[in-house]
Design goal:
Two copies of one chain form a homodimer. In chain A, helix 1 packs across helix 2. The first copy, chain A, is an alpha/beta fold. The longest helix of chain A has 17 residues. Chain A folds into two domains: about 45 residues, RecR Domain 1 (Helicase, Ruva Protein, domain 3); about 140 residues, Dna Topoisomerase Vi A Subunit, Chain: A, domain 2. In chain A, helix 5 links the parallel strand 3 and strand 4. Chain A contains eight helices and six strands. The radius of gyration of chain A is 22 Å and the shape is globular. Chains A and B meet through helix 1, helix 2, helix 3, strand 2 and helix 5 of A and helix 1, helix 2, helix 3, strand 2 and helix 5 of B.
């Protein structure tokens, strides 16, 4: 005889599939929802039911859009410069850049980074669509905004090679010391990059 | 204009209500489910929908039971000794004790621990029902299996006083060194308890 009621066990199992959620955490979520107002569980189920129905990808930029939208408003907005394209790995990277309030170009989501370990090759990314956009929108600058890890770097290199024949300026986000971090706490690679990218005052 | 589609934002907000889940983690869950097979989101919604419908509390022991069951099988099972009752704070504590495979009495769930900070007083716990059970089932031993923190200790003290007039032996789980922990890493209170509870070989 099981000590946990089957329906609670099922909730725990379902939560256990979320990234980074182990059996203990899943138990905690399940038990919390059981004790809490049933409205909380209902909020989650209602939100999840609509998730896949009403979110899709912009066919041009691969940013997330609402169902009903044809293209991402970040692309169609006339105030955004279509000739400057920030290339990011995931739709959520767009959020991070938008929060800066200092980028007014458009975005292109690759849908991941090249990763031999995870079996993600160049053909799994939206590179062909990017090349097409460069021609169609007469793109002048491509800002490679992939992260600073191995996969981000190799994807950036791959993209640089892919657009070599096009007349487009390729830039990347500066690497260096994050604001507020002491020199002594910076890792060697970051410090090396900060030295390489030093600027004249 | 929001960068995240409204339906995804709603999922993130709903997950953010789970204990210990901050905005970043909620975003991670939401985005993971969006990219994953829609079946995963469906598994969670289906499990959650049935949660409150099919789980309830045993009116005798306050353990979790399936709908359709009148009493907890851990109570009705004739192999379990109704005269020995382990008193625990939460239904999940039963799981931990059952995993030991070395307890064959029955359980009584208090539904929490006395906590002035959280506003939980003796009247919020299932103490009256425990006193009734002691008489009805002619309980001989009450094992106080509350945890070793301040709230567990004060609840244990409260229970000891509450059953003082009854002819029932009150015991509590031994405090001491956990198996596999080096003496030098044990905290002072645990070590003090281990000394106090030392046993003759």
């Amino acid at each position: 005889m099981s000590v946990i009621p089957a329906s609670l066990a099922r909730v725990i199992e379902a939560f256990g599939q979320l990234p980074g959620v182990g059996p203990r955490t899943a138990e905690r979520y399940g038990y919390y929802l059981l004790r809490a107002d049933p409205m909380k569980a209902k909020e989650i189920t209602e939100a999840l039911t609509k998730l896949h129905q009403s979110v899709s990808y912009c066919p041009k930029t691969f940013a997330l859009i609402e169902s009903g939208q044809k293209l991402s408003p970040l692309y169609t907005n006339p105030k955004r410069d279509k000739q400057i394209v920030a290339v990011v790995a995931d739709p959520f990277d767009i959020m991070a850049l938008e929060k800066t309030n200092s980028f007014f170009g458009t975005y292109h989501v690759l849908g991941g980074l090249v990763s031999p370990i995870e079996g993600i090759g160049p053909d799994d990314l939206h590179i062909a669509e990017l090349l097409k956009r460069i021609d169609e929108d007469n793109v002048k600058e491509l800002i490679l905004a992939t992260n600073a890890g191995v996969e981000g770097e190799s994807t950036a290199l791959l993209l640089t090679q892919a657009v070599e024949s096009k007349k487009v300026k390729v830039t990347r986000l500066a690497r260096g010391l994050p604001v507020g971090v002491d020199l002594e706490y910076a890792d060697q690679i970051t410090l090396t990059r900060a030295l390489e990218g030093r600027q004249t005052l």
